[in-house]
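Entry 14. Ran structure prediction on the chain below.
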Amino acid sequence: MEFQIIWFILWGLLWAVYFALDGFDFGAGILYPFVAKEETEKKAVIHAIGPVWNGNEVWLITAGGATFAAFPTTYAYMFSYLYTPLLIILFALILRGVAVEFRPKATTETQKKLWDLGIFVGSFIPALLFGVAFGNIFMGLKFDDSGYYGTLFSLLNPYGVIVGLLFLFTFIVHGGLWISLRAPEKLAEKTIIKARRFWYFQTVSAVIFLALTAVFTNLYDNFVKFPLWFLVPALAVFCLFATGFYIFRDRRGKAFISSALFIITLVFSGIIGLYPNLIPSSIDPKYSLTLFNSSSSPYTLKIMTIVVIIFVPIVILYQAWTYKTFMYKITEKDLKEESY
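Output, structure tokens:
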């Protein structure tokens, strides 16, 4: 039981870290066609995310792998019930990766425009659909022992869509802050203005999300039982307003950190509300997939814990080195290079 709870927490942590890191890549890709009009500006945005986006996706692989190894039943049902949206997300991520790598090598205007579109679409779709997917998990999927009764379009319900929009606006703000930290000042100023505007949309969608969560989900039940846990969503609200506070005072580094903390605490608020469920059933709670009825054996979880203790610090160290190495203001000299 101890290892099951540990891996439930790790499962949530891995997803939270992934969204906090790859989230600004999504946001930068979504803002890309709207803030980068000149060729040098487009190169600057790609240069800003180029050295780190691939490493950020390591956390997606880790989160997916952890789900498969720690909760194989949940993994199987998730990729069965949510097969279509997850496949769309996968294709979009492939498109984004190819576009980021090949855009600097494009030789004609047509090629450049196609890769520009690929960067935008490959960023927009995952940002939205990850939120829709998690929104539906929070709400509960329509399944029992006979199978799943939903469709791709049934996932696009009001609550799923509002969570999708919350993710989308959050990533746009997050991405705008990242570009403003790394891009030349002219481009940085344009993106920080966009971030300020989208912070309002982010805040409104967060308020609607909190209200609809009480109507469409049971996430608040755990918080009512253990009021101390309200500190986590309270911290999320604080980080959201701290992000706005620092954005409007042009303190971009602190705004970016606040934005990352908002994403982490937001995801953890959902994970706390889900406990002990991984995928709740909206038909009958007895069909829900929980950390107790869908986990691997204690021995497997024990071995996985040892592996995590050894290898996750290594991943953190090399990613920290990557960020330290590439966390500099991009100059014209950097943009003259063929690629990042």
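The chain has a mean pLDDT of 93. Will compare against last week's run tomorrow.
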